[in-house]
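Page 47, continued from p. 46.
Same chain as before, 497 aa.
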Amino acid sequence: MPYAQLSSISSRVEDIVSADAIAVGFVKSEEDGYELVGAIDAIASIEKFFDVDLIDEISFFQPAGKPGEILEIPVSQKATKADRVFVIGLGDQSTQSHRLAAASLGRKLRGKKINVSNLLATQSQDIRAHAISSVLGSYTWTLKSDAKTYQPTFNIVCKSEKIIDEATVIANAVCRARDLVHTPSNIKNPLWMAQQAQKIAKEGKLTIKVLAGKELVQFGGLRAVGNSSPKPGPRMIQVSYQPKSKKKSAKALPHVVLVGKGITFDTGGVSLKRPYDTMMAMKSDMAGSAAILGTLTALEELQPNVRVTALMMMAENAISATAQRPSDVIKHYGGTTVEVINTDAEGRLVLADGLAYADAHLDPDYLIDIATLTGAATLGLGRQYAAMYTRDNSLAAQLSKAGDSSGDRVWHMPLVDDYKEALRSDIADLNHTADKGKFSAGSVTAALFLENFTSTRRWVHLDIAGTARSEVDAGENSKGGTGFGVRLLTEWITSLS
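Result:
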């Protein structure tokens, strides 16, 4: 499906009224009055051009002024295309309110062939956030045979084309990740994901390597999970970015390695998910890998002076005669042995191999894994914040700042050493799901398990089980995959440049 388009326009009234519609912002004042906000001079010109008093129109409806609240006011055309003004609540005028307002407008117009001149934001950060969220709010994905392929175009009053260009890159990267997540699992398997990555790498001149079959002999976790599915079996997809201007001196640049969980469908394996309807969302269990691939598409366009390697750990957790069993012992990359307790805790098994491989061969300055890992993270933080685990407080602060700035928000969670004893095994180096009766805290113990495979690297674990999927149309998210992580990682990585 196509994505909404973005462009920058001037504040000249002739440019603004050449669209099909115009969007302006308003807030409710403390005195219960209303105030127009945004490109005020341009808004005044619009009111004069159409001979309309927007405050008077707003006051008639008595809106609450919540971010995303929309009034549609018809105006006379006067030999122009524009025949309506969307007046949108901006709440407290924060960047987050701008996101919600833009997403609300995008959702109202998705699937429509319409041009909108947008005057809501004036600050660079708000303009960029607003532009990105307009696209995200209008996002659609469908396999319906009669689906229309229309999408709106948002013409944003902005003096800098660079801001709109960057917003387009990031929004498209998020949407591309969403496309991968939405694809049903009868189409999407590890081989299909490898083919998509190869196509994307070729388009963006990224470097790619795919390991399969005997090449994965040392990847005990990936094989234990992925060998239960029909052919083509598991894959490790390695995609690499380095800036074009630094090809000769790239090794001197900071190296970020991203490891993404890539379970293309999760039945739970022998430890079958129940009730069965909990499987309905499991085509999204590869959202971590989708996020890091989407991030690399954005980085290739933005060209920060950082090296980035993405490891997509792809497998399907199916049920068959070759499925792993509870009580099996597997040997991960690097030799660590792990007793399998519950085959539905498969994500940490594939991530462990990726982390160990990255530590052994890629010499990362930063090692980040991202995964739809535990329901416990969702119970603790809901669907607005991802759980972030690291012992590096400085790095945590950087990512928290990037999350607040980008809209992909994270919350620093504790790695509680007292819980480590729950990972002990009588027959292997570790067990992989901990004694829940003793400590609970399933998201914490999962992070503690992964830490065993990171050596002394500057490591962060992002548990996006709550944020990677939305069950309803809400905020910037359409029902289904959200593309969470693309904005966060892109923002943070570019800040290292």
